[in-house]
C-alpha cells in the first residue's frame, strides 16, 4: 500500500561547507587544515605547509563565501586567506560553539555565560537572535528551510516545539506533546514519541500523523526513514520526502532489527542473516547478503552506495539488490567515495582509537591496506579525498599524541607531510621591519622599485606602513614585477643589516592586482628614518662626481640612471629635488640613495663673470662719467676703455656678479633604457626658464646639453 502526501520544500544542512575540529577547507585556491589545536595553510601543491600563529582548540568552522569563520578556544575568528585570523567582535567569548548552514543562511550556536544563544549572519555581521534559547549548541542542527522560512524543531520538556525566525526573533509556531521524543529533519521534519506515536510537520506548520499507526524499531537515514509497526514486525513502513510505503513482509521468521544507510533499508533476521529490502520495486522483495557482519556503513558523498564490514570480508553494492563480496583486511566503520574507488577506515566515535585504513580501487575485488602511520590503532581524524593530492589526518599513540598528516596522489601510496612548528606571520611592512631574522612572514604590498635599479636580484615593495627589499637569487628565478603591481610576498626575514625578505622561489611572489605608491618628501637628514622607501629628497649639492651626488653633506646618491654625467648637469650648492630609493647600504655601512627618475634644480647660486680692465691712475680717473652710467653702460665703457688703453700698462681682474640665478625644473635625465627599467616611475619633463635664465643657462652648459634644452 502506498500513501502519498504533499512534500514540504526543504533544504537541509549543507555539510560540505561546515566542519568541526580536524577538518579541511578549500579557500581561494588554498588548502586549509585545522587540527585539534593548530591551523595550517597550503598555498600550492609544490609549496610547504604554513603554520598560523592562531592556536587553540578548534571547536567548529564554516566556509561562508570566501571567508572562513572558525571557533577557536573561546572566540570566533574570521580569515579570508587562511593565514591571518581576526577576532570577530560581534560575538563574545563562549564555552562551546557549533556553526551550521541552512540553505544560504548561516547560524552560530554558542554557550555564553551558561546560556546557549543563537546568532545568524546578516550582511556579514553575526547578530544575536531572541525568543528562544537552546538546551545545547548542537540543537541548532535541527534547523531547516520550509517554504522560504527558517524553522527549527526543539525538545522542551515533554513537548516538541516549532520556532520560525522572523528578523532577529524566533517565534513559536506549533507545539506537540510527546514524551522522550526523538526528532529528525530528514527526510522530513518529524517526531517519534516514547509510546510509538509519530508525527510530521506539514507545510502549514501543523503536526500531522506520519505513519498510519504507532511504531517501533525506527531507523533514520539521509534519504529514508523506516520503522516496524508496533508489536508487528511483519509490517514495515518506509518514509521518503514525498511518500509513505506500507510493506507486509513474507518471511519465515520475524526480523530482529532494521537499519537504514543512505537510501538502503536492511533487515537482520536471527538465523537468515542480513537482507536488503527492495522497497523501490512495485512488489518489494528481500535480497540476502550475509549471515554475519560487524558494521553497516553509509558511504559519504554517495547515498546510493552501500558497504557492510565483516572482518576479512566486505560486501559492496553499487545498486539496490546487487551485492559483491570483497576481500578486506579488517573491520571499518567509515567510508568515502572517491574518483578512483572507495576509501574506508576504522575510528571510534570519539576518535581515540582506530584500525586499518583500506582502499578499494574501481573494478577490483580486494581492499588494499594503505595506512603507513605508526600504529594500526592510530585513529583517523579527518580526510580530504575529493582531489589530488588527498590528505588524511591521524593522531598517533592511540589518539593521545601528535597530529600527523599524510598525502597521496593515487589513494594507494601515502607519504608523511612535514608540518611546520614555526608560524608564518601575516604582517604589514612596518611590522616586518621589526621582526627577528629567520622569522617567516607574508605581506601584501605594492612594488615601488623594479629589478635593475639596485641589483638584478632585488626589488622593493611598500605599503602605508613602510618599505622593504625583497631578494631572490637569480639561480631560482628572475624578479620582473612592474612598479605599482600589488603583490603578496611570502618569505623569511634575513639577518643582513639591510632589512630584506628572502624568497625561496619566484612563486613566493604572486600578483594580486594593481596598487599605488607615493613618494615621501624628505631632506637628506631624514634619510635614516626613510629606509626602504621611495622619496623625493630636497637638499643642496655638497659634493659632485660623475655618477654620484652628496646632498646636505651626508646623503650619497647613486646617479648612474642619468644619461649624462652628473657633473654636466649639476653644480655645487644647487638646491635639487631628486626621486630616490633610500636604504641602508651594507657595503658602505650607512644609509644611501639611488636616483630613480626626473630631477628638479630648484635654485642655483648666482654665477660670477670675470672681466679684465686696465689699471688706472689718478690722472685717468673719470668719477663723473662713472657715477652717471648704468651697470650695462659701465661695462661698455670699461670694455671700450680697456680696448683703447690696453697697451698703456698692466691690467687688473674685476668680478661682475650676475643678478639672476639659473632655475631648472624637471629636466629629463634617464640614460637610454633606464626608463624601461623604472617601469613608469613618475616623471615630469618640463623646463621653466625666464629669458635671462635661459640665456645664462645656455652659457653655462656644454653644447650637447644646450641642444637638448632647445629641443624640449
Describe what this molecule looks like in 3D.
- With 712 residues, the chain is mainly beta.
- Among the domains are: 88 residues, Bacterial OB-fold (OB fold (Dihydrolipoamide Acetyltransferase, E2P)); 106 residues, Nucleic acid-binding proteins (OB fold (Dihydrolipoamide Acetyltransferase, E2P)).
- Helix content is 8%, strand content 46%.
- It has eight helices and 59 strands.
- It has an eight-stranded mixed beta sheet with strand order 35-34-33-32-36-37-38-39, with no helix packed on it.
- It is elongated and about 145 Å long.
- The termini are far apart.
- The N terminus and C terminus are likely disordered.
Entry keywords:
OB fold (Dihydrolipoamide Acetyltransferase, E2P); disordered N terminus; 712 residues; single chain; 59 strands; 8 helices; five-stranded antiparallel beta sheet; mainly beta; disordered C terminus
State the gist of this model:
The protein has about 700 residues and is mainly β.
Which strand order do you get reading across the main beta sheet?
35-34-33-32-36-37-38-39
CATH architecture of the domain at 520-606 and 666-684: Beta Barrel
Report the CATH superfamily of the domain at 520-606 and 666-684: Nucleic acid-binding proteins
Per DSSP, what share of the residues sits in E-state strands of 2 or more residues?
Answer: over 45%
Question: Could you give the distance between the termini?
Answer: 97 Å
Secondary structure topology:
Blueprint: E1 2-4, E2 10-11, E3 18-20, E4 23-27, E5 30-34, E6 38-42, E7 49-55, E8 58-64, E9 67-72, E10 75-79, E11 86-87, E12 96-102, E13 105-112, E14 115-122, E15 125-128, E16 143-146, E17 149-156, E18 159-166, E19 169-177, E20 182-184, E21 190-192, E22 198-201, E23 207-209, E24 215-220, E25 225-229, E26 232-239, E27 243-248, E28 257-261, E29 264-269, E30 273-277, E31 286-290, E32 295-300, E33 306-310, E34 313-319, E35 322-327, E36 334-337, E37 341-347, E38 354-361, E39 368-369, E40 380-384, E41 390-395, H1 396-399, E42 403-408, E43 415-417, E44 424-426, H2 429-432, E45 440-449, E46 458-463, E47 466-471, E48 485-493, E49 500-502, E50 509-514, E51 520-522, E52 534-544, E53 548-551, E54 555-558, H3 566-569, E55 575-585, E56 590-595, E57 600-603, E58 608-614, H4 623-628, H5 631-645, E59 651-657, H6 674-678, H7 691-700, H8 703-711
Parallel strand pairs: 32-36, 44-45, 47-49, 51-52, 54-56
Antiparallel strand pairs: 1-27, 2-16, 3-8, 4-5, 5-6, 6-7, 8-9, 9-10, 10-11, 12-13, 13-14, 14-15, 16-17, 17-18, 18-19, 20-21, 21-22, 22-23, 24-25, 25-26, 26-27, 28-29, 29-30, 30-31, 32-33, 33-34, 34-35, 36-37, 37-38, 38-39, 40-41, 41-42, 42-43, 45-46, 45-48, 46-47, 48-49, 48-50, 52-53, 52-55, ...
